Amino acid sequence: MGDYDKREKLKEFYLKIRDCQECELSRSRTKFVFGSGSAYAPVMFVGEAPGKNEDLQGLPFVGQAGKLLDELLDSIGFDRSEVFIANVLKCRPPGNRDPRIEEINTCKSYLLEQIKIIDPKIICTLGKFSTNLLLNTDKGINTLRGKVFKVDSRIIMPINHPAAVLYTPSRMEILKQDF
Fold first, then answer.
1. Is the dihedral of CA 9, 11, 15, 19 positive or negative?
2. DSSP structural state of residue 48
3. Residue 2: which residues within 8 A CB-CB, separation 6 or more?
4. In which element (H, E) is residue 158 found?
5. Pairing of strands 43-47, 149-151
């Protein structure tokens, strides 16, 4: 699939799902947060769910965790526009609570279709929920981070979520090592 085709296919997919009403989160969201970046990115980052700022702007990782992610991307020579960033959930859970299993199961097909269209060589899972989903495991992120997994011809690299590091600054060096 050519680059133009990927962009068009991703746009068509967004238009198809942007008005999703499949779960209760759709009733409280401000904006549907599809994802952003390059449709032909070699690397994709997958977080768990939009937060308050993301819900307001309709873009992933635009708050403090997003600023940290941008700094980390810069440290490895990437700009946000060269990767694709998405979340498992496309709508914000109330109070930024953890995603529920039924919400993950509802949104899972959306993320998997994004991965199929973009076809990244590497997926960096940010935190427990995206890691557990894409590796089909219930192991904790601290057990899996720093390791490399091959799933369906893709490399999956579990990484601590940048927001977790903001709450526990002592983990910053570990996060930098993962990048």
1. positive
2. S
3. none
4. strand 154-159
5. unpaired
Q: Measured between alpha carbons, how far is 178 from 160 in angstroms, rounded to an integer?
A: 8
Taking CA 130 as the corner, what is the angle to CA 16 and CA 4, rounded to the nearest 5 degrees?
Answer: 40
What's the half-sphere exposure (Cβ side, CA atoms, 13 Å) at 170? 0
What pLDDT was estimated at residue 3?
Answer: 55
User: What total of structural domains would you count in the chain?
Assistant: 1
Is the C-alpha dihedral spanning 14, 19, 23, 29 positive or negative? positive
The CATH number given to whatever domain includes residue 139 is 3.40.470.10
Q: Which domain holds residue 121?
A: 3-178
Global confidence as pTM: 0.94
Question: Would you place residue 96 in the very low, low, confident or very high pLDDT band (cuts 50, 70, 90)?
Answer: confident
129 pLDDT more than 80: yes
> For the range 50-54, what are the long-range contacts, defined as Cβ-Cβ under 8 Å and sequence gap of 24 or more?
50/87, 50/89, 50/90, 50/91, 50/92, 51/92, 51/96, 51/163, 52/92, 52/96, 54/87, 54/92
